[in-house]
Amino acid sequence: MATLDLNAISKSFGAAKVLHDISLAINDKEFVVFVGPSGCGKSTLLRIIAGLEEATSGQIIIGGEDVSTAHPVDRGISMVFQSYALYPHLSVYENIAFPLRVQKLEKADLDARVQQAAGILQLTDKLDLKPGQLSGGQRQRVAIGRSIVRNPKVFLFDEPLSNLDAALRGDMRVELSQLHRSLDATMVYVTHDQVEAMTMADRIVVLNGGRVEQFGTPMELYHHPKTKFVASFIGQPNMNLIPATVQGTDATGIKVELAGGHQMVLPVEAATVNTGDKVEVGIRPEHVQLGADGLDISVNVLERLGGVSITYGTIGGDTRFCASLPGDAAIKEGEPMTLAVAPEDCHVFDASGDVLRRKAAPALVA
Amino acid sequence: MTHVAIHGDVTPKAKTLPEAVFAWLLIGPAMLFIAIIVAWPLAETIRLSFMEAGLGGEEYVGLANYQELAESRKFHETIVRTFYWMFLSVALKLILGLIGATLLNAAVPGRGLFRVLVMPPWIIPMAIGMIGWLWLYNGYFGVLSGAMMTLGITGGPFEFLAYKQSAFYSAVVADVWVGTPMVTLFFLAAMQGVSRDLYEAAWVDGAGRWYRFRRITIPQIMPVIVSMSLLSAIFTFNSFEIIWILTEGGPRGATTTLIVDTYKTAISNFKFGEGSARAVIIVILLGVFSLIYLNVLKYVNRKYGTK
């Protein structure tokens, strides 16, 4: 197992630059998730690490060794593809054994390693079947098995769960987390699903437009998003962003007037804004309660999920606002409601989308 | 509470035909067609094969035609020659097709152009293509003969189609020329159907070019290889125009395959009965051959298939 360092990786396809100077230091045995919307460059970055694409510039260092120009097989990585890339004409056994056959491993050794991988992944009774006879989750496990037998330094996963249905995806998330613990391996995992990122990652890399927006633990990203993009990408339902005007600043924070007229004093670093500046106030749907004084929302759609009621409405005329309220909250579609929000739960973003650092954020849990 | 009838008839019965009548109406035209252009000629051929039939009339002779063929050494040689012709030609088509498809599938610049350039032998009308080959093979003004003389391989003009051996292999070459494009394009289509991920996965695992070809490409396109070789075998077995235009089965029968022999007997010599007997034997031989082949295909699908 090993560390993985990326030094100023850039990638252009012709005139289009898809990755801009990406530098990351991934620790040994860490589970790192690259997350971002389609086209953010996360898969390209993974393929560059794998050696399937060549970086236009920059270095890839695995376990202290520069592998930027090495053949994939010499990098000590193994990759699980989105499509699983199982060989349909080969049995599960031969699929798992494929990398070892390439290496011309001795029969007894090969068999032992295939059996061991099959044992870990509960595929022992499926070894004679063809991939076409397996369920989606089992195929996924075969693809992982093919990775395990190589004893790679770094496991690479390219959206491995995106072909599975929602229920199975949940199960596989748990299985992958357990696998990470039992293999004690460095893993890099690409997904567009922030839930997968939040639940599995030790640390998350949020990519946007070929740049790293933020690299941190899930809770760090949740409580201290550096940019508006990260804030709205992490968390479900998405964070509400309400236009606001700065009324005044002092050492304790800034006073803002939100769209809709409500005024608040928010405890954030005020150094970079001045009175009269336009900002956006970010409020997570789960950080509001029904109250007598606060944000005036007109409710358009109400989804009662039992435990919670997800409420969609507008504030100040046309700014959309989503609130996650108790399951039996006394509200109705088409009627107004007032929501209270604690000032220390609010995030403030300046006009360029950068956050004003919160002074009173909760301590991070490990 | 009102009672709602749930068994109400929605469609008026008077306007629908009984299902069986409708089904017969649908398949009727096709069946009639097949009866006229396939079944009747086949039945007529079988009937004629038991006749001594010529321009003068027909006379029932029982199995005499077949007996004659069974005892004819020349006919035995024709059968052997036909199978040799078929195996040689099909083998060459498959090998060249596989090589061609692999090259056309490679990510080389301008491969679209090359893909188009493969097509002409298949597109050009057979007769025109074969007249081209006649010119190439001509001893006095053919390019091949000229080149051989210039290079000092032969001392004088060499007429390719004038000698038994050279005529046979020249015909094989022309047949391969005609048949290879189709095989190539089918193989290419099959290769393009193989997921890129499989190659990438194998590459990441360290599999070299040849290893990927052998363990991924070939097994993945094996069902197409097998069905293509069956099709190609039948086409080649029955290939008539190529031989007829080039050599008319000569010299001295060197390029006479079963189909040419059948034509010569029935049409050139007006021996319809004996010709029909030959045609029936062709059907039987190809039938047996296809049966064997389909079993091979079944085996291949089991071995290389996804289930």
Q: How would you explain this protein's 3D organization?
A:
- The complex is a heterodimer of chains A (about 375) and B (about 300).
- Chain A is an alpha+beta fold.
- Chain A has two domains: about 5-230, 3-Layer(aba) Sandwich (Rossmann fold); about 235-350, Nucleic acid-binding proteins (OB fold (Dihydrolipoamide Acetyltransferase, E2P), Beta Barrel), CATH 2.40.50.140.
- Chain A is about 25% helix and about 35% strand.
- Chain A contains eight helices and 20 strands.
- In chain A, the strands form four sheets. In chain A, strands 6-7-8-3-9-10 form a six-stranded mixed beta sheet, sandwiched between helices. Chain A has a six-stranded antiparallel beta sheet with strand order 13-12-11-14-19-20.
- In chain A, a hairpin with a 5-residue loop joins strand 19 (about 345-350) and strand 20.
- In chain A, helix 2 (about 90-100) packs across helix 3 (about 105-120), helix 2 (about 90-100) packs parallel to helix 4 (about 135-150) and helix 3 crosses helix 4 (about 135-150).
- The longest helix of chain A has 18 residues, at about 165-185.
- Chain A is elongated, with a radius of gyration of 24 Å.
- The two termini of chain A are about 25 Å apart.
- The relative contact order of chain A is 0.12.
- Chain B is mainly alpha-helical and about 300 residues long.
- Chain B has two domains: about 15-50, no CATH class; about 65-305, MetI-like (MetI-like fold, Orthogonal Bundle).
- Chain B is built from 13 helices and two strands, in the order αββαααααααααααα.
- Chain B has helices spanning about 20-50, 65-70, 75-105, 110-115, 120-125, 125-135, 145-150, 165-190, 195-205, 210-235, 240-245, 260-270, 270-305, and strands at about 50-55, 55-60.
- Chain B has a two-stranded antiparallel ribbon.
- In chain B, helix 1 (about 20-50) crosses helix 13, helix 3 (about 75-105) packs parallel to helix 8 (about 165-190) and helix 8 (about 165-190) packs across helix 10.
- Chain B is globular.
- The model of chain B has no long low-confidence stretch (mean pLDDT about 85).
- Classes of the chains: A alpha+beta (about 375), B mainly alpha (about 300).
- The interface of A and B includes residues 83 and 85 of A.
